[in-house]
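Co-fold these.
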Amino acid sequence: MTSSEFMTEEGTGIIGSNAGRSRSHNRRVVLEFVRAHEPAGRAEIARSCGLSIQAVSNIIDTLQGEGLLRTVGHRAGMRGKPALQYQFNPDGAFAVGVEIRPDAMVCALLNLTGKRIFSRRKKLKDASPEKAVPAVTKLIAAAIEASGRDRKNLLGTGIVMPGPFGESGLSYSGAAVLSGWENINIKEEFEKALACPVIIENDATAAAVSERLAGTASEMNSFCFIYFGTGLGLGVIAGGHSQRGALGNAGEIGHIITEANGLPCPCGNFGCLETYASRMGAFAFLEKAGVNMDEGATLASLLEAQHPAMLEWIEGAAQHLSQAIGMVENLFDPETVILGGAMADVVIDALIEKLDLPKGSVANRPARNFPRVMRGSSGRLTAAIGGAAMIIHRTITPTVTVFH
Amino acid sequence: MTSSEFMTEEGTGIIGSNAGRSRSHNRRVVLEFVRAHEPAGRAEIARSCGLSIQAVSNIIDTLQGEGLLRTVGHRAGMRGKPALQYQFNPDGAFAVGVEIRPDAMVCALLNLTGKRIFSRRKKLKDASPEKAVPAVTKLIAAAIEASGRDRKNLLGTGIVMPGPFGESGLSYSGAAVLSGWENINIKEEFEKALACPVIIENDATAAAVSERLAGTASEMNSFCFIYFGTGLGLGVIAGGHSQRGALGNAGEIGHIITEANGLPCPCGNFGCLETYASRMGAFAFLEKAGVNMDEGATLASLLEAQHPAMLEWIEGAAQHLSQAIGMVENLFDPETVILGGAMADVVIDALIEKLDLPKGSVANRPARNFPRVMRGSSGRLTAAIGGAAMIIHRTITPTVTVFH
DNA sequence: ATTTTTTACTCAACTAACTTGAATTAAATA
DNA sequence: TATTTAATTCAAGTTAGTTGAGTAAAAAAT
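Predicted complex below.
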């Protein structure tokens, strides 16, 4: 397998199709079907994908030759010749994800099925591009080495950084924002340093993609992910694809106003959701309530100790979150809203427990396949895993129409 | 030209590509390019669409043969052989749009360039499916007859009805809601009656598509449209395609809460945006202020007379709208937010004038191609025109991946 | 004024990838 | 044991895009 087989053509605007692009699209269509329905036989895939059995057969031969798919016995119990079943070959390829924060980097390796095969965290003294790019390069090299994988099976690297990217009115400075990255082409820098395809994405979108690849949303084509980072982000998957907006800054849910004339926010507004329902908001609330967080206490430990201030924060945050979730439901009509990110599971569960979702919502329908709100499944490595998931997602998920 | 050339394949999930589907995709790619850049020559199209000149040449020959494209002389002033320029042939095809309201139907015919070639409004005594479907059928037949068009050039019909569709917590009854349509397959009913392809869509989405086809947003791939109907709707175009959510109910912006514990809304919540910033909201406000609307006064006439209550309503509505627009900007990161629909232009302009948009928004960036908020361009026929625009949009805009 | 360069476009041969139909295999059912 | 059903393969056929040579026409250079 050469990595060029996965090269995504890039360009401005929508491009036409030809034999080669059809093949590349069909490879992804087959892979996407197998991801969602494995194990599956050739005839079954052909029927579902609108292709002839012969076409699917040829594609599967190739994919198997490349080590991406493998057989898992025959399907029994049905009439007719039993179908040879295929599934992902977990070791056929892998992807790297890196989360860059102002103070640290987290690196995770995922195999083709989205399972974590390695992860490592490293402090970052200087998060400027000049220092961070080489540091990330070194970290990845060490991670691949330690994982025992062959670099030729590397599909690419997904870099997760806090947005918003480019020029925007939210470029205030705060703990969550990286400085020095404003005027460089981040993707190009990393592609040069890493010599592999690179995707740059924000944490919330990466987390959403990760949930779809191998998490809570593996069967959904349309859902939203509320990401608890330092601030708060929203990742949106619609029609199986992440939605990034005109300039890649969609999903800035943290600065939605949920209380008119509420708490002041560094962004200049008052009453932003983020000032209530985020880790940052929690710390500010607890500090104001006189809780000393320096002695090793965490949000999770405070919650487990049923600390009154923590319970009070949960209550208030849940109220603001409920409002925001209602909004998201009415605007995006998702199959579900997933809560996750850099927040302990117990805290998220407590928040979900306390939610009081609006009745007047398109989501408040009797027949639902999933609850209105669910918890994410990838825990604290979510962002780094999400980065790698983006790469695998791009390898698998079909898109003929390419946008800028 | 046979209408089967435009038949969209439908199915569940993503389908593979083959020669025929490639051709169909490439036809759309060429048409979409010409729409956005007309007039254009073959070589120029080929370069931009990632196809060979020969492929584009063959497609253009076909499109010209079908009457969809026509030549408009040669491009002069450049070196080399002057390129033959192509543009849409306005009369090559047309589409019908129908807006169905509880008390009336509006029908509009658009030519291929999105220009209105005919429109007619008719009262509807009984908006039940049994009565309305035949009434619409008759109206369309009369409209086609009166426009002098040949039915064989009809691309299809777009029916615009107030959502939300299907089961949802917003199925309260109110003036804007049609009853009796809950448990029938609306698309099938109309396709049977009209014997042409049919799209069912809500007013906001249809209006958004219309703005992109031949309006304020003709060069945008990502924008939002806030539609003033009886209530309030949001149409979202992202990546050139309308976003409808998991069940087609995305964009219910009317029931976003912009004032905690505010005015009661029929949906069960308090403080919904719709109770302030919608026609319904305006009438309620004015009635409460003692303004008698029965004597032929309209929102526009009150505004022109600088009626204090009207000015007060504008002020309040603009405040709530500003909040909602800020939200929409932060969540979708659109190129612009367009305001339009069944509200007089002067009123919309007054609202825009009074907006106080949040500073903390990803949209508040110095370098913008468009203002943060703009007014829509299709006026009171917006919804019906939008229906027809949906059909033309589908004919033109490429999508290989087909979703359910 | 003539030649060169540049660009658009057409014709004909070529190729990649999907489709079709016949043949083969293997399990369940009659 | 024969029949039916379904999966898969083989080989030929089809569609549509690509490639390369050749023509046409305008601008720029000589």
